[in-house]
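Private note to self, pasted from the team thread so I don't lose it. Backbone tokens:
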């Protein structure tokens, strides 16, 4: 920049030196130059115009020098590319001729493509015109064919009327209706009812089939009159096949409402006439003076079943016919009319049954606790009354079952109809639960629940009175009899299909198990004391034991609890399976299974009683086993080498104990169930282990004594394992751990075992230290210092 103003480079350097000599510090110059670093030449010119002092001029000079150097470097870089640029320009000049040739070829191709596109557009236009013409021709041909077909339909209609083929005539009218609207372009071929073509003003003045439509309309009027007359005649004569034939014709010829009403009236009348005949027969049976034979002939179940069967057959036999001729809503209307008649008749039968069987009085007596002779269940008259009572209960259940089956049939049919597009089916399903018939059925279910509860109470009372010890059986007769009765009552309740009724019956079953049945099984614990002696002490001949001996009675009394607990579980499983067969809704199944879960708690209660009774027998056995166990009290476990060898050579107490244990338990094993015997053995071994532990804690041990104890514990575990199917190691686990502790070399060695997951300690830290202190070699202070 300064050179452009005529200042030589030497002058610039001289000025710089003068600036330094004039007192401008070099650092200030460098700072100013640094501030201006990176300026463009234009910015430097602008900055030079604003310079006011020597210092600023010096800084600006430095920046200008830097800028000059950058510009020189950039120019040199550009000059270095001159050769390559000139070479590229020369190459471009050579390719200009080729680019011109390519442009000429591209223009030629574009012209040819434009001509082809114009030709394609013209071809497409002509093809569209031909397609439109073909469509019009096809429509005209179809219209001509429809007209010809319609004329043939008219001729066939006349022939059918002449030969009284009314079914074919109705079909031809229906076909003509579809062809009429197809020719006129009036939609989808007409409605199923055919009301439009059969109306007076159906044929337009310009319609191609105007004359034929008039003929068809006139023929249809004649056909209506003939079909209605024949339908009424067939209905009066109860000719069901002819009724169905003419009912199928009424819809297609336009008599939908009247035809549906006439067919509905016929079906309702048919069901009503049969129901009236059955009910009159029932009343004639009821009018006979009361007696065992007369009451047995009165069959309410047959009368109700015949009514429901007639309705079901009427629905199933005519379902397709009604749906095809009158639509899904028409079928729902017929079903509603049939259900109304059936509901009235069924309610009448059920009310008569409640009145004749005096269910209200029986239920009231049952609720008031009137046993009706249950206290004398062993008498023939009482047993006869119970049988009559059971027949009444069975009859009530069968009536409830038939009503539930009828309701299920209605719901299934209406569900299928709703799926086919009927809007009336939904409201009909919703109204079923509150119908008079279902209200009466709920009342009947309430009577049944009370009667079933009374029946269970009476029959269980009879089973208790007839209870006896059965020869060769592990239990008394009460167990088998009671569970047979309870299973029968539970299944009978399940058969009703009513979830509230089933839950009530199952609750009553559980209540009878917990109250009357359990009370009958309970005995004073002294009854079981005879199981604690040995055959020699009791002077028994095992081969001569029979069901009258106190030992057999006591064993069966104990077994009753165990077998009852198992039977309750089986009863629950059986009813669980029936639940899935009877109830389709998961909500109902869950309610029933919630009631069944109470039986598990009842079963556990019976198991606890059996276990406590076995514990009582074990306690009564201990005085006989205690002397052979207390021998340990006289033994020393602080042994010398000679004493240890002597103890190894001879068994001082274990053989005698095991012999007495086998004598005490062996003879009673055939009398008890496997579960009771197992519990008795384990209870006895638990008592023995506690006694041995108490005696050993009073002893002093050296390491040889610990070895003897460990051997004795292993032997007693091995020998007693043969008495039971379950392991006995848990009963002697504390003794085994005591023997382990007494065999340690030092107290600190216990830390290698303590906290080990492989060994579950039954002893507490306090008990561990107490056992270690029994070793004569261990220092008490070292034992107390163990960090357990």
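Design output:
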């Amino acid at each position: 920049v300064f050179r452009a103003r005529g200042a030589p480079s030497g002058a610039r350097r001289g000025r710089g030196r003068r600036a330094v000599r004039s007192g401008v510090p070099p650092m200030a110059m460098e700072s100013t130059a640094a501030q201006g670093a990176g300026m463009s030449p234009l910015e430097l010119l602008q900055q030079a115009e604003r310079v006011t002092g020597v210092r600023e001029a010096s800084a600006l000079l430095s920046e200008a020098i830097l800028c000059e150097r950058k510009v020189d470097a950039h120019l040199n870089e550009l000059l270095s590319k001159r050769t390559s640029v000139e070479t590229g320009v020369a190459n471009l000049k050579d390719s200009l001729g080729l680019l011109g040739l390519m442009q000429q070829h591209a223009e030629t191709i574009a012209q040819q493509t434009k001509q082809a596109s114009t030709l394609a557009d013209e071809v497409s236009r002509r093809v569209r015109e031909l397609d439109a013409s073909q469509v019009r021709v096809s429509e005209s041909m179809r219209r001509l064919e429809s007209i010809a077909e319609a004329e043939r339909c008219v001729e066939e209609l006349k022939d059918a009327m002449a030969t009284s083929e009314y079914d074919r005539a109705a079909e031809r009218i229906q076909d003509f209706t579809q062809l009429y609207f197809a020719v006129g372009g009036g939609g989808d071929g007409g409605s199923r009812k055919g009301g439009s073509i059969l109306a007076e003003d159906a044929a337009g003045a310009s319609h191609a089939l105007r004359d034929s439509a008039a003929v068809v309309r006139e023929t249809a009027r004649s056909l209506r009159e003939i079909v209605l007359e024949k339908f009424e005649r067939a209905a009066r004569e109860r000719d069901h096949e002819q009724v169905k034939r003419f009912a199928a014709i009424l819809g297609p010829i336009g008599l939908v409402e009247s035809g549906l009403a006439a067919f509905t009236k016929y079906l309702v009348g048919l069901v009503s006439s049969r129901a009236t005949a059955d009910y009159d027969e029932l009343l004639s049976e009821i009018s006979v003076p009361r007696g065992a034979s007369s009451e047995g002939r009165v069959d309410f179940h047959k009368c109700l079943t015949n009514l429901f069967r007639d309705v079901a057959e009427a629905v199933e036999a005519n379902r397709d016919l009604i749906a095809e001729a009158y639509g899904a809503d028409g079928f729902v209307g017929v079903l509603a009319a049939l259900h109304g008649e059936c509901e009235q008749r069924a309610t009448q039968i059920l009310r008569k049954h409640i009145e004749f069987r005096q269910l209200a009085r029986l239920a009231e007596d049952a609720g008031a606790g009137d046993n009706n002779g249950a206290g004398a269940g062993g008498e023939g008259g009482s047993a006869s009354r119970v049988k009559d009572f059971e027949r009444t209960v069975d009859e009530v259940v069968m009536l409830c079952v038939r009503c539930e089956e009828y309701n299920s049939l209605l719901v299934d049919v209406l569900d299928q109809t709703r799926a086919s597009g009927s809007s009336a089916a939904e409201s009909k399903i919703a109204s079923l639960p509150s119908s008079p018939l279902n209200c009466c059925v709920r009342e009947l279910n309430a009577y049944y629940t009370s009667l079933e509860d009374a029946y269970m109470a009476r029959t269980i009372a009879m089973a208790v009175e007839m209870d006896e010890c059965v020869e060769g059986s592990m239990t008394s007769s009460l167990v088998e009899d009671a569970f047979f009765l309870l299973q029968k009552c539970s299944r009978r309740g399940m058969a009703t299909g009513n979830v509230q009724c089933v839950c009530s019956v199952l609750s009553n079953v559980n209540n009878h198990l917990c109250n009357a049945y359990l009370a009958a099984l309970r005995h004073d614990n002294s009854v079981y004391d005879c199981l604690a002696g040995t055959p020699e002490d009791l002077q028994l001949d095992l081969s001569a034991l029979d069901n009258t001996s106190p030992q057999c009675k006591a064993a069966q009394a104990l077994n009753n609890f165990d077998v009852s607990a198992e039977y309750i579980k089986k009863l629950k499983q059986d009813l669980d399976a029936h639940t899935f067969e009877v109830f389709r809704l998961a909500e109902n199944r869950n309610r029933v299974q919630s009631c069944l879960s109470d039986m598990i708690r009842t079963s556990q209660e019976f198991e606890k009683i059996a276990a406590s009774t076995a514990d009582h027998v074990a306690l009564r056995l201990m005085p006989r086993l205690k002397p052979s166990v207390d021998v340990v009290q006289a033994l020393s476990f602080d042994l010398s080498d000679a004493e240890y060898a002597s103890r190894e050579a001879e068994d001082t107490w274990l053989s005698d104990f095991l012999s007495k244990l086998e004598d005490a338990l062996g003879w009673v094993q055939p009398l008890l169930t496997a579960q009771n015997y197992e519990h008795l053995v384990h209870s006895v071994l638990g008592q023995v282990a506690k006694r041995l532990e108490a005696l050993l804690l009073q002893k002093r041990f050296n390491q040889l004594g610990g070895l003897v104890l460990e051997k004795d514990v292993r032997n007693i575990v091995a020998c007693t394992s043969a008495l039971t199917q379950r392991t006995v190691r848990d009963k002697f686990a504390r003794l085994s751990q005591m023997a382990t502790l007494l065999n340690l070399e030092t107290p600190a060695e216990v830390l290698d075992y303590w906290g080990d997951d492989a060994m579950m300690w039954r002893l507490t830290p306090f008990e561990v230290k107490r056992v270690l202190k029994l070793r004569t070699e261990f220092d008490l202070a070292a034992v107390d210092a163990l960090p357990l």
